[in-house]
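Saturday, quiet lab. Running sequence design on the structure tokens for the scaffold JK sent over.
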């Protein structure tokens, strides 16, 4: 039966070029290159979540990320059309994005409107342009996209009896359209043909699993079973053309050459079908090839591990890595922000604290000089690194927790020690059992005395303390209280009480200075779920608890010192006149308190929220749909207390929001105002930073007329350059009078505002 697939454009919007979005920053990895495309003078490369392009004439490199409007899901294929000046970006969920020559982005979602097609079969594998149409090879068939109108047309189900089969690549040759398929061999149908959406038009030429199909230099080429074929299609004879050591991952024509790529070999052929270039490895690099193209006499090679390399075909020794700076991977598991550095780790565990399959990833550090990385080989081959923390008294000493191999100590970016089960350390890290030597360290936190605390999952002595000063360990047994359990990131209060989220036992509060006193806050104490993912202590000494089904707050954690039970309560808000529970049924992954005592709340599936100190108001709700967040699954949040920049680590990349709630300063000696002057084309707010908490700010014109007044919460306030929020003030110099709450400290600053005509 003939079936027609409706591809509907649900979202159609042009997003402005991202350099104007000054509130957001992007921190993507460009290492795992999914595809490359080219024009006469540019190469375009895509990782899973972002893109970059290099102009080979000027060497200018431009990144294109969610901050620029590239709302990728997981990028799987890209294609540049010089004729139409557009780059098509295909994704694993069928999403098609269009990047214009000025790098503005047209978001366009093509969704299969048939329930019989599972989401996993919408992946875009390849994009082939022919006479104004893009033939998009997907895991269900071929979709046709008109490059002139930017509209979808027919969809071809070309499997036997109209089955949905995975098409790896399509091409048009000698009156036929050919499709290389995984399940049903090399298939073809006459072309042009208005009935290609009728499966009966398609027949099988050769059986087997075919991964490539290309028209080049008047011939047809296809790949199957380790062989690049140049078959006799009139007589259906599959003549072999060249043999490769592994599966073909990319076959293309690029600026007059045919480029064939497998994971460990690249061959280049000229139009006389003579192999003119072969590469089996990049000197000095251990990488896996994913794709390759040619621009301006250079071959550009996409790799899985280290982005894109450029090599002149006439000089194999002149290797250049053109990959933009970034973290090792886009999916970041955990962060730690220090005054000068941002640390990132990528390993970790599943939602059920399972570290398998083990992940052997490195560690990254972002500083004023850019990104640096510590490879896993240097980290004693430790697996599934789940947490990282710098010593607050010396940020050059850093500790990383492996959820399989113990604790790693790093000094001046060099790993110097690993603490695991062998040799056994008195009171040190413990394996799960004598038969299972997995040492699962997590939840790193320093107390005010400089001791490092951590959890040792599934061990009897599950709480550990390491004192870096004397290299001594202490161990605390909580097995009788909660049994064997797993733990998320702890928080330590000013009384040295440890508040530890658990997988099955709610929140464990523990203080060794009170005769190892512990209190457990579970469902009977009004938690919505005993699986707690995070805790945070705010500036009012309240404990915020994030569970997999909601939020609770303990009003005063000081009560731990004198009481034996603690009760958590929901925050009730009014929404449309009805009483609602804040974060009802949400899976909360992280809670961070900013300098104004607002709470940043990360979730699994609903993005990030910023709520007021009491939780009664939502200031922001950032999602993938309304912001540059690359995913609604937030793994971790960190705040730069000096600048207010908020970092969101997600499963698809990291971005930052340049917030305003900085930590309060101790005095007014470092107050600064920016921008200053405020120029006509500036459309943001004036930041007055470096304030003490609850400082009074009055702004007047040069004649002393008051135009704005406020009180700071934290270290920064904003002024929208309006007179009490009504009208924009005129060109001129404005005085900013600042005084502390008790009036003992004062400061006067000036700001120049310049309006256009």
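Result came back. Writing it out in full:
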């Amino acid at each position: 039966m003939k079936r027609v697939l409706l591809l509907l454009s649900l979202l159609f919007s042009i997003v402005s070029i991202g350099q104007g979005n000054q509130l957001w920053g992007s921190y993507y990895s460009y290492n795992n290159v999914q595809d490359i495309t080219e024009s006469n003078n540019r190469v375009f490369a895509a990782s899973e979540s972002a893109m970059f392009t290099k102009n080979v004439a000027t060497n200018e490199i431009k990144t294109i990320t969610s901050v620029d409007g590239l709302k990728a899901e997981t990028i799987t294929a890209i294609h540049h059309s010089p004729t139409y000046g557009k780059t098509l970006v295909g994704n694993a969920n069928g999403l098609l994005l269009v990047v214009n020559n000025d790098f503005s982005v047209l978001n366009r979602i093509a969704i299969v409107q048939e329930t019989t097609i599972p989401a996993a079969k919408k992946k875009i594998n390849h994009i082939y342009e022919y006479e104004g149409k893009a033939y998009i090879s997907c895991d269900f068939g071929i979709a046709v996209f008109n490059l002139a109108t930017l509209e979808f047309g027919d969809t071809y189900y070309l499997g036997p009896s109209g089955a949905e089969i995975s098409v790896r690549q399509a091409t048009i040759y000698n009156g036929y359209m050919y499709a290389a398929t995984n399940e049903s061999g090399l298939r073809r149908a006459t072309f042009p043909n208005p009935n290609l959406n009728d499966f009966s038009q398609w027949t099988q030429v050769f059986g087997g699993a075919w991964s490539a199909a290309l028209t080049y230099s008047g011939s047809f080429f296809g790949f199957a079973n380790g062989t690049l074929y140049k078959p006799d299609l009139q007589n259906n004879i599959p003549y072999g053309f060249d043999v490769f050591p592994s599966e073909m991952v990319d076959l293309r024509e690029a600026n007059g050459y045919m480029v064939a790529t497998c994971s460990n070999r690249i061959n280049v052929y000229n139009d006389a079908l003579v192999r003119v270039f072969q590469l089996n490895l990049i000197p000095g690099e251990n990488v896996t090839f994913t794709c390759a193209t040619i621009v301006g006499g250079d071959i550009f090679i996409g790799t899985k591990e280290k982005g894109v390399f450029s090599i002149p075909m006439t000089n194999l020794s002149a290797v250049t890595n053109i990959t933009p700076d970034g973290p090792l991977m886009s999916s970041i598991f955990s962060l730690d922000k220090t005054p000068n550095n941002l640390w990132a780790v990528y390993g970790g565990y599943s939602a059920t604290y399972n570290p398998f399959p083990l992940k052997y990833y490195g560690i990254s550090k972002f500083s004023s000089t850019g990104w640096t990385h510590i490879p896993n080989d240097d980290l004693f081959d430790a697996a599934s690194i789940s947490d990282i923390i710098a010593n607050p008294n010396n940020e050059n000493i850093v500790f990383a927790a492996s959820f399989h191999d113990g604790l790693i100590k790093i000094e001046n970016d060099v790993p110097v020690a690993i603490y695991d089960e062998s040799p056994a350390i008195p009171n040190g890290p413990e394996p799960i059992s004598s038969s299972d030597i997995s040492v699962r360290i997590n939840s790193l936190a320093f107390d005010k005395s400089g001791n490092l605390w951590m959890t040792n999952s599934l061990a009897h002595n599950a709480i550990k303390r390491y004192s870096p000063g004397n290299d001594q360990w202490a161990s605390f047994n909580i097995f009788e209280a909660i049994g064997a359990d797993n733990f998320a990131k702890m928080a330590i209060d000013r009384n040295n009480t440890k508040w530890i989220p658990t997988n099955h036992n709610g929140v464990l509060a523990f203080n060794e200075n009170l005769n190892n006193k512990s209190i457990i806050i579970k469902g009977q104490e009004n938690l919505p779920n005993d699986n707690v993912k995070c805790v945070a202590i705010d500036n009012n000494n309240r404990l915020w608890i994030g569970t997999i089904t909601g939020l609770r707050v303990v009003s005063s954690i000081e009560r731990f010192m004198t009481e034996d039970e603690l009760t958590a309560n929901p925050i009730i808000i009014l929404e449309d006149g009805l009483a609602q529970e804040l974060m009802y049924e949400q899976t909360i992954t992280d809670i961070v308190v900013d300098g104004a005592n607002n709470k940043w709340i990360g979730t699994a599936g609903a993005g990030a929220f910023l709520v007021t100190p009491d939780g009664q108001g939502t200031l922001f709700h950032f999602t993938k749909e309304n912001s540059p967040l690359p995913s609604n699954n937030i793994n971790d949040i960190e705040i730069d207390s000096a600048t207010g920049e908020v970092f969101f680590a997600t499963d698809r990349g990291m971005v930052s929001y340049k917030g305003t709630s900085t930590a309060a300063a101790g005095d007014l000696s470092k107050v600064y105002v920016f921008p200053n002057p405020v120029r006509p084309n500036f459309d943001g707010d004036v930041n007055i930073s470096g304030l003490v908490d609850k400082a009074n700010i009055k702004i007047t014109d040069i004649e002393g007329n008051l135009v704005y007044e406020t009180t700071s919460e934290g270290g920064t306030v904003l002024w929208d350059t309006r007179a009490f929020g009504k009208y924009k003030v005129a060109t001129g110099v404005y005085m900013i009078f600042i005084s502390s709450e008790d009036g003992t400290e004062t400061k006067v600053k000036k700001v120049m505002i310049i309006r256009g005509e």
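Notes for JK: Helices lie at 479-482. Confidence is low (pLDDT under 50) at residues 1-20. Ask whether to fix the surface positions before the next round.
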